[in-house]
Amino acid sequence: MQNRIIYEQPLNERIRTLLRLEYLFKQGNHFLGETSVWDSRAMLLTILEIGSIFSRGDLKGELMKELERHGATLARLESNPDVDHRRLGEILNKLDSLIDRLHVMSGQFDHAIKNSEFLNSVKQRSAMPGGTCDFDLPALHYWLERPAEVRIRNLQAWFGSFAIIHEAVTLILHLTRQSSVPVNERAEGGFFQKSLDPNIPCQMVRVAVPSNLPFFPEISGGKHRFSIRFLEQPNLDTRAAQTTADVDFQLTCCII
Known about the structure:
The chain is of the alpha+beta class and 256 residues long. It has helices at residues 13-32, 37-54, 59-75, 85-104, 111-114, 117-126, 138-144, 148-160, 163-177, and strands at 4-10, 183-187, 191-195, 202-210, 216-221, 225-232, 241-242, 247-255.
C-alpha cells in the first residue's frame, strides 16, 4: 500500500504513555535544531511536558518491566532455526544494556527540572493561556534574549537528561510495531470490530489506509476487543460522520 497514513491506538496505559513520550521527543528533536526565539520557547515547553509525564508515576520501573518482558519474549526465539540469530542477539544485547543502565541510575530523571527555579516558574505560568508573556515572566524574557548558542546549550542539557528514556521508548515501540504482520481487512459500511484473546495481550492496533481516501478511522478498544469506525468530514466546520462505504485497509495487531 503506497502513500498511506498509519493510525495507531494503544490498548493499555503503558503503551499510551510511551506513544506520548515518543511524540514529545520527536517534537523536541525538531525544535532543538532551530535558533529562533519561538523555537526555543516551544522547546522549553516540550521539555516541561516530558517532565510532567515523569511526575505521574514510576516511569523508570515501568520501562524496565517492559524491556524485560520484550527480552523474555524474544529469548524464546533463540531455538528457532528460521530466526536471524545475529540480529536477534544484537537486540537482546541492546535490551540487556538498557536495563542495566536504567538500573544503575539513581534519583529522578527530571531532577534537574524540578530543582530549577527558572523552569518551575515557567511551568507554573504555562498552564495559564498566555501565561508566559514577557511581563509575566521577565526571567524567561531575559533568557530568550540570550544568544542562540546559549539557549541551545541550556536546552540540550535539560533535554539530554532524558536521553536513556528516549532510547528505551524508541526501542520498545520499534519492537512492538514490528511484532506482527499487517493483514488486509474490510470495514463494511465503514465499521470493523475484532475480538482479542485476553491471554495474549495486544499492545497496540495500527490501521493503514491510502492517503487519498476521504475517510479517517476512529479506533476504540481494550483488552477484549476493539472497533474501528471510518469517518468522513468534508467540511471542518461540521461534525464527522461514519461513512456508509466499504473501506479496505491494512490492520496490524501488535502482540508481543
